Amino acid sequence: MQTMLRTFEAYAHAQQAREALLGAGFSPEAVRLESIDDEAGPVEGNFVIGNGRGVNDESPAQPDYCSNFERTVERGVHLLVIAVQDDAQRRRVDELVSPLGGVDPEAAG
After folding, report:
1. What pLDDT does 64 receive?
2. Each residue of 25-46: b (16+ CB within 10 Å) or e?
3. Percentage of the chain with pLDDT > 70?
4. Contact assessment for residue 20 and residue 96, using Cβ atoms and an 8 Å cutoff
5. Are 79 and 33 in contact (CB under 8 A)?
6. Burial label, 86 (beta-carbon count in 10 A; 0-12, 13-18, 19+)
7. Distance of alpha carbon 108 from the chain centroid
8. Is the pLDDT assigned to residue 79 strictly greater than 60?
9. Are 80 and 94 within 8 A, CB to CB?
10. Residue 58 to residues 23, 52, 67, 87, Cα–Cα distance (Å)
11. 36 pLDDT band (50/70/90 cuts)?
12. How far apart are CA 36 and CA 29, in angstroms?
């Protein structure tokens, strides 16, 4: 048994993907939906006082926090965990959840 992960920005899309998988014959035990963030806000980084990176000598006109946002990372906060038995099931998962916005967090970046 292998595990696949797919993230979603919207809970409704994650729930639709779960229902599509159940409708396609996946067992409820093989498809788990989790929320990996909460209303308290971000858990990464130090968003209150910064991370110590500021203006460098190469671009002195750059605002202190500008470099912090050069490479933003978007991530879903709803995680679908799917147990699959073989490559055919992996392909079927992709066919069903990709159109709903499911992103493989291991391949993103």
Report:
1. 57
2. ebeeebbebeeeeeeeeeeeee
3. 61
4. yes
5. yes
6. exposed
7. 8
8. yes
9. no
10. 56, 17, 12, 49
11. confident
12. 19
The one-letter amino acid code at 76 reads G
Residue with tokens 């993907």: 17
The two tokens of residue 98 are 């990709």
CA-to-CA dists, residue 66 to 42, 63, 73, angstroms: 19, 5, 15
Quote the crossing angle between the two packed helices 87-97 and 11-23, to the nearest 10°. Answer: 140
pLDDT value at residue 22? 97
The structure tokens listed for 106 are: 């291991």
Q: What percent of the chain has pLDDT over 90?
A: 51
Strand order in the sheet with 31-35: 2-8, 78-84, 31-35
